[in-house]
């Protein structure tokens, strides 16, 4: 019994080593629920959705988070899908916020709950090029709330314009940055193009 | 040492197995517990772009966006709000209810400011309180509310400047490359990092001290690279500072504003002195004296006073709309529509003079706006969808004193408004290429 007890402690310790933690973890709490088809989609409801993902972290290729205002698994090695941590990446956050379908030919509105683990079929470059039925390019000068700016490697949505001519951008920026609202100058940066989502209803 | 028997070996194996299983189960339970918090505390936030500088006769509509916890039905917040408004910058506020519109692209909640207020020669000051009916949570914009309201100032008889269509390709060559460092982590170099998620990152900000010392925030290597008369000297900070902003203070300390909204004050040797969280959620620019342009308030918020950090509530109370200039005046900047920039120098909240600048080419962000001689220097960006350049404008009492373009290309991403600094009568630019980082100097004409 003494041996059992001692090695029970060892076992507990082993359960917490990084190997067990690394390929784990947060995704085990996510689900595969079907999205809810919706007839409406307003820009401020999209702001609500993206804003609620702030502080929930960043996961390369990810699209699943809760609403506890903390990244459950911060500081994962970047660009590793297999870390299965909390948060979306830039295109995953945009896909879910824009209520898109995993079928690129569908342009309807599909509401994904936060814990539904889905990234969607688009990377930043595909969004930049207006790929998929729900997406299109827009002139940057006309881009407004919850339109987006996308480059070959990143996409962020316009939370609102700002007084000094930049924009407050809601974006899943990087593993160390997490998901948040940052002041950015993507609008004037020729590396970025304007992107919009068809079908806003208000 | 006694040889272990079968029972003890079996017990040990069972112990390890039970421990591992128990640990994993407990981890899962713990994670599932946090995942179950799908409805946390009520979220509430707001957006608002103040009409900081108006033109007489121009109708003024205040627009607000209200952001709250996502609704299960996917709809927008059910909210309301009140604007507290007064003529000038003293006296009691009058309450006006916000209207709720059908569209949210520019903010769903709005108020058309009564002409008696919007046309006042003294301008007006105001704040708003918005409420989410689902949770009864409220938010004030700006966050200092009545203690630090937004101001809107009329531009009477501004100097008008028409820039016309921007000619891309005619950029000015710097008068000097003051410092240059190759990429690397060793002495004499500046760090470069790359990732698919961020692209390239390198030095994210810089400053130029009154004696000409150039300080580059070597973010990747976690240090300040200082080029002074004695050559280069590095000040280690002990941590990387991706995309952080930076200011060298007159007393020899350094400020680093990190991505997550914490201002770090360092002694001259790089040891930490204090750190303080910003009052608002988003920052745009760090200036000397630990003053930070923040959103959603769209105000300059002092984060320290006399060398000591201010509490977040104190930051909100002492925030101000105008940027403080070295001569004690204030400077208001307002980018309006696709191609208009309004600038006013103020004494208190009274305009001393103003400029109304229009451009046929869209204008992006204002990177820098400072007093310069008897005028003002502004660095903004002209852009079309596939090209952009910075435009430097030296504004004098009678109009444009100097104008030139500066290449905007950058190998790495920096803090958003950290590409330029004005010091010793010259304009300095942080530039990065595939070979390394440099700080260039552009000499300026001085408005009389």
What does this protein look like?
The complex is a heterodimer of chains A (202) and B (448). Chain A has 202 residues and is an alpha+beta fold. Chain A contains five helices and ten strands; from the N terminus they run ααβαββαβαββββββ. In chain A, the strands form three sheets. A six-stranded antiparallel sheet of chain A has the order 5-10-6-7-8-9. A two-stranded antiparallel sheet of chain A has the order 1-4. In chain A, β7 (155-161) and β8 form a beta hairpin. Chain B is mostly beta strands and 448 residues long. Chain B has two domains: 44-154, Immunoglobulins (Immunoglobulin-like, Sandwich); 160-443, 6 Propeller (Neuraminidase). Chain B contains three helices and 38 strands. In chain B, the strands form ten sheets. In chain B, strands 2, 4, 5, 8, 9 and 10 form a six-stranded mixed sheet that branches. Chains A and B meet through α1, α3, β7, β8 and β9 of A and α1, β1, β3, β23 and β29 of B.
The second-level CATH architecture of the largest domain in chain B is: 6 Propeller
Distance between the amino and carboxyl termini of chain A: 67 Å
Strand content of chain A: 15-25%
What's the main sheet of chain A like? 6 strands, antiparallel
- Annotation field: number of helices of chain A: 5
Alpha carbon gyration radius of chain A? 19 Å
Can you tell me the CATH superfamily of the largest domain in chain B? TolB, C-terminal domain
Q: What does the overall shape of chain B look like?
A: globular
Q: Counting H and I runs of at least 4 residues, what is the number of helices of chain B?
A: 3
Major protein interface: A-B, 89 and 93 residues
| C-alpha end-to-end distance of chain B | 94 Å
Helix content of chain B: under 10%
Number of domains of chain A: 1
- Oligomeric assembly: heterodimer
Class per helix and strand makeup of chain A: alpha+beta
Mean pLDDT of chain A, to the nearest integer, reads 87
Helix content of chain A: 10-25%
User: Strand order within the widest sheet of chain A?
Assistant: 5-10-6-7-8-9
């Amino acid at each position: 019994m003494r041996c059992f007890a001692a090695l029970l402690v060892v076992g507990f310790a082993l359960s917490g080593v990084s190997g067990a933690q690394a390929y784990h973890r947060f995704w085990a709490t996510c689900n595969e629920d079907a999205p809810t088809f919706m007839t409406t989609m307003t820009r401020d409801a999209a702001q609500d959705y993206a804003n609620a993902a702030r502080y929930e972290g960043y996961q390369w290729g990810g699209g699943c988070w809760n609403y506890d205002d903390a990244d459950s698994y911060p500081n994962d090695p970047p660009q590793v899908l297999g870390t299965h941590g909390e948060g979306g990446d830039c295109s995953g956050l945009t896909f879910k916020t824009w209520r898109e379908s995993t079928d690129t030919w569908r342009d309807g509105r599909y509401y994904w709950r936060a814990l539904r683990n889905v990234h969607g079929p688009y990377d930043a470059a595909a969004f930049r090029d207006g790929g998929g039925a729900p997406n299109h390019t827009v002139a940057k000068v006309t881009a407004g709330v919850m339109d987006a700016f996308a480059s070959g490697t990143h996409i962020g949505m316009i939370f609102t314009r700002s007084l000094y001519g930049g924009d407050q951008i809601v974006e899943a920026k990087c593993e160390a940055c997490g998901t948040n609202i940052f002041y950015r100058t993507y609008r004037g940066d020729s590396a970025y193009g304007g992107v919009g989502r068809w079908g806003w209803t208000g | 040492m006694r040889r272990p028997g079968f029972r003890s070996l079996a017990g040990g194996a069972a112990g390890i197995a039970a421990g591992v299983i128990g640990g994993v189960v407990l981890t899962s339970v713990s994670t599932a517990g946090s995942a179950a918090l799908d409805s946390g505390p009520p979220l509430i936030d707001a957006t608002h772009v103040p009409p900081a500088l108006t033109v007489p006769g121009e109708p003024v509509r205040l627009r607000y966006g209200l952001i709250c916890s996502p609704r299960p039905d996917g709809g927008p917040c059910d909210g309301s709000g009140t604007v507290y408004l007064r003529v000038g910058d003293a006296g009691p506020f009058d309450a006006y209810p916000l209207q709720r519109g059908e569209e949210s692209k520019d903010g769903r909640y709005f108020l058309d400011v009564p002409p008696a207020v919007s046309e006042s020669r003294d301008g007006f000051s105001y704040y708003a309180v918005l409420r989410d009916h689902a949770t009864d949570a409220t938010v004030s914009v700006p966050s200092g509310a009545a203690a630090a309201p937004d101001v809107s100032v009329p531009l009477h008889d501004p100097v008008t400047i028409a820039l016309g269509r921007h000619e891309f390709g005619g950029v000015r060559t710097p008068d000097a490359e003051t410092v240059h460092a190759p990429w690397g982590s060793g002495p004499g170099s500046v760090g470069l990092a790359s990732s698919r998620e961020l692209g390239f990152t390198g030095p994210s900000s810089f400053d130029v001290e009154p004696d000409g010392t150039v300080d580059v925030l070597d973010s990747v290597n976690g240090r300040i690279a200082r080029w002074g008369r004695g050559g280069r000297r590095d000040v280690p900070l002990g941590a990387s500072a991706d995309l952080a902003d930076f200011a060298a203070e007159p007393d020899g300390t350094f400020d680093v504003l990190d991505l997550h909204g914490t201002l770090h004050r360092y002694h001259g040797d790089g040891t930490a002195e204090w750190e303080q969280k910003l009052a608002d959620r988003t920052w745009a620019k760090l200036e000397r004296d630990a003053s930070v342009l923040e959103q959603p308030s769209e105000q300059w918020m002092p984060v320290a006073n006399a060398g000591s950090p201010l509490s977040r509530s104190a930051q909100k109370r002492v925030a101000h709309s105008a940027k403080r200039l070295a001569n004690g005046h204030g400077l208001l900047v307002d980018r309006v529509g696709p191609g208009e920039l309004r600038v006013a120098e103020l004494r208190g909240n009274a305009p001393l003079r103003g400029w109304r600048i229009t451009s046929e080419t869209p204008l992006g962000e204002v990177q820098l706006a400072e007093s310069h001689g008897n005028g003002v220097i502004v660095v903004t960006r002209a852009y079309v969808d596939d090209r952009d350049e910075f435009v430097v404008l030296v504004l004098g009492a009678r109009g444009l004193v100097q104008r030139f373009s500066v290449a905007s290309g950058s190998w790495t991403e920096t803090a958003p408004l950290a590409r330029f600094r004005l010091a010793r009568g010259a304009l300095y630019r942080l530039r990065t290429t595939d070979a390394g980082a440099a700080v260039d100097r552009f000499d300026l004409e001085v408005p009389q």
